[in-house]
Amino acid sequence: MAGIYVGSTSSYSGKNLFILGLGLWFKSRGYSVGYMKPVGAMPIEKNGRMGDEDAFFVQDVLGLSQDPAEVTPVLVTQDFKARAFAAPCEGLRELCVEAYEKLSEDKDIMLVGGSGSMYSGRYCDVDGVSLVKRLGIHAVIIDRFDKELNYDYLLVLGEALGDRLAGVIINDVPQGAMEEIEGMIAPLLERHGVKVLGILPRDPLLGAIKVADLAERMGGRIITAHHKADRVVEDFLIGTMQVENFLTHFRRRRNAAIIVGGDRSDVQLVALEGDAPCLILTGNLYPNDIILTRAEVLEIPMVVVREDTFSVAKKMEDILSRHKLRDKVKIQQGAQLVSSRLDLEQLRKTLGI
């Protein structure tokens, strides 16, 4: 039975994307797939049982229904952290091993999801590096492009894991950075013995969010076209400039929410006529009746929020970069991206299956 620990250099790097893509790929080839997430940082209750939100989601997609206490033996609640900070943690790593051995019975391959980065959980002895070594499985590390890559971190992990590192994935790479990564960074890693399994280009759909979810995350209120709240937002544009300049930028941005003051009816009208997926009106200011009527006619949701434009833009950036993979269409897109862009046959050979 083979095992893969899917870790990353930072949070929100695409671990669930890869786990689901890999799990569906192996299942399509007749393998029996198991899953666990040893450390869960997002505790929720489902059907009367406490578990990790991501773990519940991954199990649902892969058609698994194991006991959440075994799937996530270390659940990081406030009480857990208080105990862990007050006194040394004992036995947690062995608890993970016991759960892994039970969940892996009759499975061809086990997928083990990391939490945070590879060194998250060090304070209680359940960090990714320690678990990979203790479980005796291979690791795949994801590094998500965020202005630059954490190539030093990847080299350190290569030294720390040795032969246990099956390879790394470079994720969410914009087109402008692809040449440098393919021509310089990937060869550097390979020279140091760090196998690059694939480079995934940035896909706006995977970071997209529905207007209804966006309004909820923003703490805002949808005031028009409620029936179109399932429209998808992939990007955002701040409408503080003059109309002429705004129009130039607006034409270049596809599926971009427009963040604009509630008193800027000129920009609002341009955005509505240009079929923006939604308008986010800042400062808790409502538009005039003409704008409201036009938004209803064109069926474009408008969301009113309390914060100023700068604060909303910062929050919007965080939401789009950290929005969870949940929609069916995203899962299908992510699975296709994983199977088409990664060297999964090489990974299978490394695992010996």
From TrEMBL:
Residues 213-317 form the DRTGG domain. Pfam families: AAA_26 (PF13500), DRTGG (PF07085). InterPro entries: DRTGG, P-loop_NTPase, Phos_Acetyltrans/Butyryltrans, Ser_kin/Pase_Hpr-like_N_sf. Homohexamer. PANTHER family: PHOSPHATE ACETYLTRANSFERASE. This is Protein with phosphotransacetylase BioD-like N-terminal domain containing protein.
